């Protein structure tokens, strides 16, 4: 097998964005005078629901409301989410959300080796653009051959649709690509599409079930930010995940693993 593409989730994977998202939700709730405020613990639980509008709907479903209030608030969800997106974009533009350790290094190593990059995320195109512009500048969008995001598919993660869309546009079979995720739903989506997946959890997702992951690391690391205990625990070459090691591991992955992943997703 030859590695042809790396496909990244965004929120939690490229950057630990969730605190900025939480604050943006709360600002939007305040703007609409809803009297809602999501704590970190509450938001950690709400993250089990994928998608911002879906998250608001799940929260609303758990509240005791009259039929009229429930209908009124349900109709407000798109507007609330749009307001939240404005707040989030402002936070990101101010540089409040850096990329996680090792992300840029690994992407640059991959591009130098002729490997293409893709994004498969359920966040909006506006959010992705804001993050890439803030952290990588004008070259941010140019680094990725495919950006599959938002409402481009009917079913969001844990459904595999967004990864299948990214693979389709890349023109790459799943056995020639590797996915990067940070959550259980994301892992299910990636493996459901037949992708070998590396997870790098955050505070928001560290308690999730990652038993189907090909590898779990606290972050991708780098010369200035080594992964504790490496090399020797999971990594072989260095105290960070190099593209050379990633390609080698992908190359020696048994083809039967792919069949098993498809069977598990059926």
Distance between the termini: 24 Å
Task: Calculate Rg over CA atoms.
Answer: 19 Å
- Tertiary shape: globular
Q: Give the strand order, joined by hyphens, for the main sheet.
A: 3-2-1-4-5-6
- Order of SSEs: EHHHHHEHHEHEHEEHH
Specify the helix fraction band. 40-55%
Question: What count of helical segments does DSSP give?
Answer: 11
Briefly note the structural class of the backbone.
Answer: alpha/beta
Beta-strand share of residues: 5-15%
Describe the largest sheet: 6 strands, parallel
The beta-strand count equals 6
Spans where pLDDT lies below 50 across 5 or more residues: 256-266
Mean pLDDT: 93
Name a few traits of the molecule.
disordered C terminus; 266 residues; globular; six-stranded parallel beta sheet; 47% helix; alpha/beta
Describe this structure in words.
This protein is of the alpha/beta class and 266 residues long. The protein contains 11 helices and 6 strands. The chain has helices at 18-31, 40-46, 52-61, 67-93, 103-112, 125-136, 139-142, 161-170, 184-192, 243-252, 255-265; strands spanning 5-8, 116-120, 146-148, 177-181, 196-199, 215-216. The chain has a 6-stranded parallel beta sheet with strand order 3-2-1-4-5-6, with helices on both faces. β4, α9 and β5 form a beta-alpha-beta unit. α1 (18-31) crosses α4 (67-93). The protein is globular and about 60 Å long. The model is unreliable at 256-266 (pLDDT under 50).
